[in-house]
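Model it.
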Amino acid sequence: MRSGFIHHLRALIWTVITVTVYFFRVPLMGLYYIPGICRQHPKWTYRQAIGVQLLRIWFKYASTVMFSFPISLEPGKEAERFVVIEPSTRDIYGALPDTSDLTVKPKPIGGTWYPRLYNATDDATRQVILHFHGGGYVLGSTRDSECRSAALTLCKNLDSLSFFAQYRLASSPEGRFPAAFQDALTAYAYLIDIGVRSSNIVLSGDSAGGHLVVMLLRYLSENGGLLGDPRAALLWSPWLNLATNPEEIDRSKNNTTDFVLGAFVKWAVESFVPPDMDLMHRYLSPLYHPFSTTTPIWIQVGHREVLHEEITLFADRMIRMTDNIVEILEVPYAPHDIFLAGTILGFESEVEDATKVAARFLNSK
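Modeled.
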């Protein structure tokens, strides 16, 4: 109880300090970035420069106070598009890595359909995107307020319905690994149970959600025939190395052109990974453990994000594996995760173009 009180007091003090400091700093920042020469990258617009800096402020604040992101299973304004899914009755959870926390059990999760609910009769042959949002496993939701723009862009350009699955977050105790992974399995089984063939499912994930997709692909590969392989996987700025030294993030040559901070990565990893689990485990750091999969993989990476080198290295290693089909798109001047944060960062047109490239990839397979 005492530690909880201290945490809330610390969060309150830091909130007051942050609001006070940035009350004066933000207007000055707005003036500073007016000349193009002062922006983080000479090709960036004023809006892009401001957007990245504001997200840096948010990530620094969230990691400092260890922000607990609220998750609800109530429908909210999404109404019938928001559904609650019970854990699958299929025997799909038993082959989880033996180093995972056995006290973490599958639980009901929520999810949001875009632009409408799936209809088993009308949509029997339609492609469905199963997307997992980013946020370092500690932030994020599937609600319209965060995902609507990205989801509708995806649906439009890929001519699909999308289901954004809300996995448990590690910013609360019950969200430690393998909670999010169990929830990914629950969401995949849910789609199959309502009539979507696995061959019509395209997995998709941004940042930590991309990491979740890679874990799911590995699990399906290692346990052949469990649920059927998806048609393809789309990885948007995937987080592929949980063993990264947070200090290396801050020393990255792309540090000034991105909003991801070492402090945020440290908080995310410490929250998500059980204390006795090796950060180099194949499920946690797939960068060092490439594998073969029958599922074609498309990867998007920002040329100016701090994870650029790791993402391109992962793509190269996966390409070298027998029978793998992997394609990567580098978006010039882009920071991390423009897919989900594009409307905040001012990279909407780049996201539009990237989803069209992803559509061409899917149509060629």
